Amino acid sequence: MALAGSGVFSETLDGDVFKYYADGEWKKSSSGKSVAIINPTTRKTQYKVQACSQEEVNKVMDLAKSAQKLWAKTPLWKRAELLHKAAAILKEHKAPIAECLVKEIAKPAKDAVTEVVRSGDLISYCAEEGVRILGEGKFLVSDSFPGNERTKYCLTSKIPLGVILAIPPFNYPVNLAVSKIAPALIAGNSIVLKPPTQGAVSALHMVHCFHLAGFPKGLISCVTGKGSEIGDFLTMHPGVNCISFTGGDTGIAISKKAGMIPLQMELGGKDACIVLEDADLDLVAANIIKGGFSYSGQRCTAVKVVLVMESVADALVEKVNAKVAKLSVGPPENDSDITPVVSESSANFIEGLVLDAKEKGATFCQEYKREGNLIWPLLLDNVRPDMRIAWEEPFGPVLPVIRINSVEEGIHHCNASNFGLQGCVFTKDVNKAMLISDAMETGTVQINSAPARGPDHFPFQGIKDSGIGSQGITNSINMMTKVKTTVINLPSPSYTMG
């Protein structure tokens, strides 16, 4: 298997430090500094990336602005062609990129490969969708509004916003970067990518695939570095025309500082799973395992609280516990179900939630076990609203169960959260499912399945502290454009075929 930074990717590496990407070239930062990326499994430095300076960010922004002007004049079919090419190259190099994901963020090997392939599919779909929706305008006539003759023809089209700043999170550093980059590019924008530190090398490899596809110089940039040095500098940069951010509550701070530009943000959730008496409990248990524990619960759309009717709670907990016992725990290289969480600080935060629940009397269905960043899967039963785990997002393999005595109680708990990303409801009664779905204050409700962002062309959005704007390929393309209208004023009313 090709190693990171070798073969076709060798130009991305200088000694043991990965370069950043600007003006169509791989460069070393003038800062002479690097940022270490810690492997969550070994807890040792795995990779190093450039610590870019504010001056380098300024240069990248200037280049992005001028490259965008030319790109906007590139025919739509040609933009699509380049995206299809990038998608093919990305899929072709899935092995070395997946290897980075395994080492940087401890993603199980098979899931890492899936992430890269899915990203290629997203780019291709985006190219197709962009050709369709951007190739269409609107034609309005004035006499449909009272008091007007047909003397005005209005043509509307979609034009690019300019420079898009993309900030993806650690958990899907390739896929959630691509979900911002592809819509931005097809719509005629340029892109500045600031990858997460954990996940930066995967992102740099992905960017190299766009480089190999032959996109114009300066159109795509990838700057790495410390958030403390270039984070605010990037998000408040006057050259940025739109920010697409996925991550935690940093997004709220960004939104307060960003000024008058479009924002697309997805900031986490506390996705509730409401289980009614008539639910198929085997189906529920399978989805709780998939939803709550896949990638060690480090997903925005993970099931993060189970609200189950008291009469079926014992039976459900028993079924879930039987499945938890079968989960394999270990390093991502072995394709373990549960792998180390991303960082020591993350593991410490999760532990804090667990200890609080212990102190307040939650029932531990498994013993709490931790080695380094590796936390064994844990189901907490009889969780009450006074426990932190009832409300806070652990982003780890720990799942609280709250027993409820009415559907209203479940909806109330779901809606009392400051998050509102997704939720799910399990019942065989479609009428009840719809009534509950309508009552849940979340961006999406899944009926009889665990929450999930995909398929990637479905709308994906959060309300309240879970974000602003909507994602999904079509929504992202539309969001990364603005409407331009041209009105033709005729000397006298005109009626075709009159």
TrEMBL record:
Give the UniProt subcellular location, in the record's own words.
Cytoplasm
Report the Gene3D superfamilies cross-referenced here: Aldehyde Dehydrogenase, Chain A, domain 1, Aldehyde Dehydrogenase, Chain A, domain 2
- What main location does UniProt list? cytoplasm
Top-level taxon of the source organism: Eukaryota
* Keywords, comma-separated and alphabetical: Cytoplasm, NADP, Oxidoreductase
**What's the Enzyme Commission number for this chain?**
1.2.1.9
Give GO terms: molecular function aspect only: glyceraldehyde-3-phosphate dehydrogenase (NADP+) (non-phosphorylating) activity; lactaldehyde dehydrogenase (NAD+) activity
Task: Provide GO CC annotations from the record.
Answer: cytoplasm
Q: Pfam families recorded for this chain?
A: Aldedh
Catalytic residues at E266
> Domain named Aldehyde dehydrogenase: which ranges?
26-485
**Catalytic reactions on record:** D-glyceraldehyde 3-phosphate + NADP(+) + H2O = (2R)-3-phosphoglycerate + NADPH + 2 H(+)
Which PANTHER family does the record associate with it?
ALDEHYDE DEHYDROGENASE
Instruction: Identify its protein family.
Output: Belongs to the aldehyde dehydrogenase family.
Q: What is this protein called?
A: NADP-dependent glyceraldehyde-3-phosphate dehydrogenase
Report the source organism. Answer: Crotalaria pallida
